[in-house]
Amino acid sequence: MNSSRNGPTASPMRSLTSGHGGLYISAPGKIILFGEHAVVGGKTAVAGSIDLRTYASLFTSKDGRIYLSLPDLGVEKTWMLKDLVNIIDQINAECPPEDDSPLNLENGYTWAQKMAGIVGEHKKVERAFLVFWYLLIGVFQRKSIDILSSSGDMHASTCKKHLEKTLLDLLAVKLTVKSELSSCVGLGSSGAYCVCIATALLQTAGIIPAPSIPVNDCGDLTWDDHHLEIIRNWSAAAESIIHISASGLDATMSTFGGLASYGKGQPIAQLHNVPELRVILVNSKIERSTGEMVKRVKRKQDEYPDIINGIFNTIDSISLKAVDVLKKASQDSVDSYNPLNELCRICNEQLSALGVGHAKLDQICTLLARYGIYPKITGAGGGGCVFGFLKKDTASTVISMIEEELSKHGYEIWQPVLGGPGVSWHFDRPNVFPPPSRAVTPTHTSRHATPA
């Protein structure tokens, strides 16, 4: 597929559409294997993507409106794109763009509030709207500058009309987001949401080119590392709207996929050729706020700095040892189960000492320990999920016994594939989206569909 831009007024979405019309993007969730909370303090974390994903579909709108549909939350919101056209000069003056970087977060957040019409306390739905608007304003600004710089000596009024028409063509869209990921349980649902929206908008506006790297045999594609880094950068900035002091790990894993070690302010270090790892993932169904759990640990750190910093250092050592185990397993076919299982046990004790445990998590850990599995909290804790490594030869009858016992307590259980692909463009319409209605017709320029 052609990855070059077709000029400032041509939407790549028109030439890169799925076999079913529209633009379909997905991004995976993640589990943190080791390094929770310590990563916020600059220590090492180890994480892996999982094959539970968030999906976005994007279609052009014929009425100049912007639609954001979030069926999982039961909401759809509509705005007029021309309202953004009318204030783009003010935004450019307050938030000067920097190459392909995202919008300045402080100013961009303020403008996102204004455009979304949101004031006061921000609940889950409001934060989802703010992320969308923050990214849309950034993409809109970047594209408007490209258009204006190519307008030459065009008269001001003509230039304004040209700008509005072009941006309406590119960014008057209906974006729908659906997810297989439970929210507020540490599986990276916020990061996957940000990555899906950032990718869809960046692709539509031509800020990143068409993907060209095969992901599988189904025609799905991803981007090269340079453009994945642009996606990660924009997504991580947007995630800070949802989670204050976000480490960027969720956005990183959702963008790149695989298994990786990561430290705040450091480049991601992909772990290659790691043998297949079996894990069991259990959702306590206790929701919690990542931001609140991070604040709780920060208060403890302020009160007991030497102790908490010591725990962070221990967690860092655990993460580095885990990286060493995984690398040796990839090189020497060494059985990695026993050391990883033991590292989980030690790490979970450190997390409990930080005060991020919960009685339900303790119950799950005790139950799994009876089968020789030492699980640990994954994510911020205080609820959410725990995971444990499984032996390669764990019998299906044992798994069934574990699942039956956990289900009796109302817990949700998965055995996800660990370390799969990151953000992807899909040729076929993902099953989470219903077939387009009969009212949906392709544009004359391509098979890209337009909802009525």
From TrEMBL:
This is Mevalonate kinase. PANTHER family: MEVALONATE KINASE. InterPro entries: GHMP_kinase_C_dom, GHMP_kinase_C_sf, Mev_gal_kin, Ribosomal_Su5_D2-typ_SF, Ribsml_uS5_D2-typ_fold_subgr. Residues 339-406 form the GHMP kinase C-terminal domain. One of its GO terms (molecular function) is ATP binding. It is found in: Cytoplasm. Belongs to the GHMP kinase family. Mevalonate kinase subfamily. Pathway: Isoprenoid biosynthesis; isopentenyl diphosphate biosynthesis via mevalonate pathway; isopentenyl diphosphate from (R)-mevalonate: step 1/3.
